[in-house]
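Duplicate of earlier report; Non-homologous end joining protein Ku input re-posted below.
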Amino acid sequence: MATARANWKGFIRFGDVTFAVALYTAASSSERIAFNTLNRSTGNRVRREFVDSETGQPVERDDQVKGYEIDNGGYVVLEPDEVASAVPDSDKTLRIEAFVPCDEIDDVYFDKPYYLAPDKMGADAFKLLRDGLRQAKVAALARTVLFRRLRTVLIRPHGKGLVGTTLNFDYEVRSSAEAFEGLPEMKIEGEMLDLAKHIINTKKGTFDAKAFDDRYEAAVAELVKAKIEGRTLPKRKAPPPSKPSDLLEALRESAGVTSSRKPRRTAAKADAGESPPKAKRASRTKTSRSKTSRSKRAA
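Output:
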């Protein structure tokens, strides 16, 4: 982390132990391809500008203020110093309030991950916390002001250091009840469940982040390269429409199991009035017996 630039510097405090730490971004989108908006006619970049919604006139930066809408067209105006006064006071200390089992927090509360490393002095205390968390199999819940907001941070061991994940507040996490409201009540068992387990077992593996490439990013990069070189890329063919299939048959096909059921056309023919195979054989047997009886009486 020596060449990385810390996003935040402060302290971790647990009990009477305090030591300095530096916080670094663990995930960033800065490496993604970025586009600028241009004027098609001139090729010049387009400049974003704030304009008055009624007059259409540009509004200078010094004349722009925050406003909270209280009704249609009515606003409470907040001056910059008033907004700044709402930011909590900070002593830049991550105060650990509790230690919880690592799997106790639902990951829907996870917001953004950051690496935590010792800053200057305090490496011994840092390692003590890291190894203590790892051996006890717990995570630390701490609170501090990060980026102008009071945040709850989940601190866990990560390799040689720690990872701190900011957590969403409860009001920010939507209930799953609405999303799953239309899910019908049904019990899956028997062959269907066995086939699903079989497919899962055959696909078991380990997570390797490098194996999951960003195909969109790669395709855009190739498109930009082709444009620079004056090449045209072949148009992608539309995928064939998927055919609706029976869930059990789809599971059997995925698992490589041959269906033991009779083809549907046999049942269709039977419904149309054609005698099933067993009925035909029974009819022929009955006819043969009748002929044999008549032959015996004639003799």
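Helices lie at 80-85, 123-136, 176-179, 191-202, 215-229, 247-255, 264-271, 277-298.

Merging into the original ticket.
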